[in-house]
Amino acid sequence: MNDPRAVGPELKRHETAPIRWLLIASAIAFLSLFLFIPLLVVFINAFRDGLALFLAAAADPQTAAAIRLTLLVVALVLPLNVLFGLCAAWSITKFDFRGKNLLTTLIDLPLTVSPVISGSIFVLLFGAQGALGPWLASHQIRIVFAVPGIVLATLFVTFPYVARELIPLMQALGNDNEETAISLGAGSWQIFWRVTLPNIKWALLYGIILSTARAIGEFGAVSVVSGHIRGKTITVPLHVEILYNEYNFVAAFSVASLLVLVSLLTLFLKRLAEWKRQQVFLENAEHGSQGGGN
Amino acid sequence: MGIQIRNVSKSFGHFHALKDVTLTIPYGELVALLGPSGGGKTTLLRIIAGLDTPDSGSVILHGQDVSAKNPKDRDVGFVFQHYALFQHLTVFENIAFGLTVRPRRSRPSKEQIREKVTALIRLVQLENFIDRYPCQLSGGQRQRVALARALAVEPKILLLDEPFGALDAKVRKELRRWLRRLHEEVHVTTIFVTHDQEEAMEVANQLVIINEGRLEQAGTPEEIYHQPANPFVFHFIGDVNSFNWPGLEEKETVKSSGASAGPHLRRISVRPHLLKLSLDPPEGNRLAGRILHIIPAGPYVKVELKTEWGDSIQASISQERYKHLDLKTGMEVFIIPEELQDFEGSDAG
Q: Domains in chain A, ordered, with CATH?
């Protein structure tokens, strides 16, 4: 539980000034090339033909439909992610059971698998030629190339984020607080709301922000299951691609700039949550270190 | 009867934390569970609280078998080594927690809770810290909040896991005395875990010595110090020197075996304050040693010696004797044990 702030002065003593400046300069050059310039390009292109065209592109019914669908997907995926993340983190950190390590590893799977494959899984499962395809078709249920498919694919890609943020924190916190609450007579529900949740809320928020950002921006997996039906199964990132392919650059960049704004907002919120989380973590670390060895 | 533990065993995988422990603790006592780290003390405490379940055996609290009961139905207060205070709650809210989570029917009114918590805060002397958060308190203050929080639900038994383990030496001493006084005031059966024998002796009326999952001895501090039941207890309680001693029956041994090359040695154990140092050779058996180091600060003078048979030992002598003998590092002295412990011939080394 090192204080990350302690690293700075430590390194300063070891590196000579020219090397330090070289490292900082190359980091800034890299960020400019891959972050600032592309961001600038997006905004310049979006506003190239004036604010009026930008607003027109943003208000286009197709764009509006894409935004609505993306918001719907986020609204459906987010509660499930929180629920799953809490359950997974709780069971992994509070109980001992067979296959615990396997579960911990599997949670990371969606992050390591290419999004194309994540999407294909659902096509192979629920598509017309898929394992469950005929049964679904005979019951008039559409999953692939429809909203349920998009929701499933997004869910698959985003579910690890909450659990991944919670597990290390909950492991570090241990069970002492919960066991104290039990011995004081609290029930499970009271323990969760009044003890566990306050302890993990900033990490939970951090996970929610990350998974929301990914859910809004997911392209690959959604592209595979979407079927690209205009006004029906087009999310915002897919909409940007379509506009771009149609040489409608101003509109493409206008919508893209909306996504960029969401990212910037996410980044800001993430930083805030991270800062709060670290505060709490340091406080706990300080308490822990009071005890010395254990 | 306060607490009865009958034939309790517990293992974690291949590790046997407790082996067939049977123990009775009378009502209202202040008891220390004492033993080396990893000996099973905390496991026993957690089993009494119901936070762990024994593999076999039963726990009877105040005449009632609670083995199958939830921790919340056992009327037991548990204080963790690192206090486990709720970081997001103030001192007041922490102490009130156990009262506010009660089902609505048995929950005291806001006024009653306020009254009760205020009384407890006065008891643990934290009147000026009522609205502070745990991170704004010192270690000793946190410990007292944790105690008050456990007492708020009026437990019949109070269990403390290494209550002073995380505190510095001075605060520790203060809190020990304070815990004794507190126990005299509230008189709830209290068990605390410690690996510090001085702490156990100072605070508790009853000691329970646990080592490698087994109960070694239970009794008053006096009994345990003066009548240790076995070599482990003797060595664990108080300082002990173990060294080779030219046997008491040396003369006979030499006589019976004819011309022996050296004296018949046997291993003996003596507490440092029961070793006398002398410049003149004593009657009978003799053991000489060289002084390696002298620590004159403190009520006693500690003298570290190496015996002629190569054992390192420590003697505690009075300041007067030290001045009288005018001891210096490097001097040769005779070592005379005044009393030695013998466990029916068993080798206590």
A: 1-46 (no CATH), 50-291 (1.10.3720.10)
